[in-house]
Structure formats: structure tokens, C-alpha cells
Amino acid sequence: MNLIEVKGLTKQFRHPIKDPGLKGAIKHLFTQKYAEKLAVNDINLSVKEGEAIAYVGPNGAGKSTTIKMLTGILVPTSGTITVDGLTPYKNRMENAQKIGVVFGQRTQLWWDLPVIESFSLLKDIYEIPDDIYQENLNRFKDLLGLDEFLHLSARKISLGQRMRADLAAALLHNPKIVYLDEPTIGLDIAVKERIRTFIKEINREKGTTIILTTHDLDDIEDICERLVIIDQGRVIYDGELQAVKDAFVKERTIHFQMKEAIPSLTSLIDGLPGVILENVSGQQFSVRFNRFDISAGEIASYVMQHGEVIDFRIDEPKIEQVIRKVYDGKLDLNSGQEEETRLVPEKV
Ligand SMILES: Nc1ncnc2c1ncn2[C@@H]1O[C@H](COP(=O)(O)OP(=O)(O)OP(=O)(O)O)[C@@H](O)[C@H]1O
Ligand SMILES: [Mg+2]
């Protein structure tokens, strides 16, 4: 059985349209005009225990609205949600025991309390046994470096510290599922890295199911194997992250380290179709190539004919490029075809 089962999930927001001022408010009493916004439109989603899913899409796509319905904060207009056998908005307390939530835009901590006191409160609220609380606290202190600010109030700590504290708070009670809505927003690279490593570890070691929304696609590269892209409230892709990369990212780079520098390297590489030489320095160089024109294997064996290769590495394509294109409407994932690329790549 799936841990999360979502069928036909829809959220229609309805908000009053008023002219400005008192006159507008009075007029609204009589005319009552409303604008409607279909934020989430007939979404289906099945999630197995232990999966880590990236839920991405442009601003206003409906990501946060989906998360809010999954966590039980918002009631769907129509459709059904089952999370570990429960309907989140109907069984809010029971559901809360099973889930952890981090909203990057808003803290779940008590603003005026020292962070450690917020944790103690959560211990009581969730009735976390002493040993589990201590074990988790020690572990999270270590992994997230909480010691430096545990005794400061949430109001006084930096954004990066706050996000780390929020993550720990969301996971103290060993939830089965954690929903992360932009957990790295506004953070510097070092803190982002720390948070990514932490999330990955929680998923791999504890088998915690992760649903992650983000605009920083580096977040998902390491953590998520499954990618769900939504646009205007609808799912436009649901599948393997790697499959999207394989199908749509044309360019790859190989970095070579040679025993000795190759003489006349430029003219040598010029002999290969569509291959561009980059970053030449001593015995090292990189080549960028279109893998629909030539394979990495062909390039490697060509280079090996002209010198001794000590080491080489192929750069994985970045999902960033692909998803940007999807956002920009330049790529139709359903047809699986960009101008010259193929859905199933011919060559590695
Ligand atoms: N409470 C609300 N009342 C009316 N409209 C809303 C409400 N909450 C969200 N919306 C609208 O629903 C749509 C989806 O919003 P949502 O916050 O889910 O997008 P998102 O994908 O999380 O975007 P972002 O990447 O900017 O966080 C938007 O058009 C938004 O304006
Ligand atoms: Mg959002």
C-alpha cells in the first residue's frame, strides 16, 4: 500500500473583489463579486514509504497549496488524500504525529522562547519518550551544529540558524514523512549544503519519506530520485529525475588528466565533431560535447590513442537547465521532443 495516495486533488480559492475604501466595501455587500483561482487542479500522486520526491514548478504553480492540503492545514475543494490511512484535515492530531513540516518562509518555533525550550515544548506536545528525544537532539546538534544558538530565542538567531532549528524541530518525534517547503530559501551555500546533507541522511538512514519543494534545483540533485513538476496546478511530469536528464540534457563534459601534456592538443580535438576544448592547464583539460553527436567512450578512446590517461571524470548534466526550459515552455515533456533531441538517447 502507498504511504500517500492523492486522487483528483483540487483547490479553488475564492476571494472577494472589492473596490477600494468604504464605498467599495458597502458596494460589495450588495453585488458580491468574487475572483476564483484554481490553485491545484486535479492532481494524482502516489508515494511509497521511503521515497524522496522533488515537487517543483514556477512561482504560483500550486506547490505550497498542495503541501498545505497534504499536511491538513487546508481543506481540498475536491479530491481525496490518504496519508498512512488517514485523511489529514479530518484527523489533524493523529496525522501530526506522523509528519514533520518545514516552511522556509515561516518558522514553526516559538518566537520568544530559547530554541531549546521550543524543542522541550514539542517533546511534550508529541509525547516523545525521553530516550528518543535525547538521542535525536544529540544527533541533530551534531549534524546541524545547533549548539551555538540553542539558548537564544528564535527572534535573535540568523535565518540559517533558524532553518536548521526548524528542521530539527520537525524531526524530533521521528515522523514517517517530512514535508519541506523551500527549506533552503535565502541561505548561503555552506548552510544549504549542510541542510541537504542532513535531509539526505534522514532519508537514507531512517527511511523517512521526503516531499521537497524548492526553486534551488541543486537541492534535489542529491536527495531526490523522483521528480514531479507542476505548472498551473497540474502535474506535467512525474518520473525519474535521471530519465529527464538523460532525455533532455545534450551537453556533457569530460575532464582528463594525462600523464604528460599532449602536444598540439587543440588541433587534435578539432578533429572530433562538435567537441569543444576547455580549461587546458598542464596535463589537464576538459572537453565539452553533444552526446547525440559523439559518445563519451569514443572521445575517451580517441584521447587514449594520443597519450596516457591517468584519470578522467564525466560531469553529470544539471537538472537546472532542463527544468528552466520546461518553465519557459520551450520543452514539452509529454511529447518528449525538443528540436533535435530524442526521448531515448542513442548514446551514453
Ligand atoms: N489563501 C489564498 N487565497 C487566494 N489565492 C491563493 C491563496 N493561497 C495561494 N493562492 C493562489 O494560488 C496559486 C498557487 O499558490 P501557491 O502558494 O501554492 O504557489 P507555489 O507553487 O507555492 O508558488 P511559490 O513558488 O511562489 O511559492 C497562486 O496563484 C496564489 O496566488
Ligand atoms: Mg510556495
UniProtKB/TrEMBL annotation:
Keywords: ATP-binding, Nucleotide-binding, Transport. It comes from the Bacteria. One of its GO terms (molecular function) is ATP hydrolysis activity. This is ATP-binding cassette domain-containing protein. The keyword Nucleotide-binding applies. SUPFAM superfamilies: P-loop containing nucleoside triphosphate hydrolases. The keyword Transport applies. Residues 4-257 form the ABC transporter domain. It holds the Pfam family ABC_tran. InterPro entries: AAA+_ATPase, ABC_transporter-like_ATP-bd, ABC_transporter-like_CS, ABC_transporter_ATP-binding, P-loop_NTPase. Gene3D superfamilies: P-loop containing nucleotide triphosphate hydrolases.
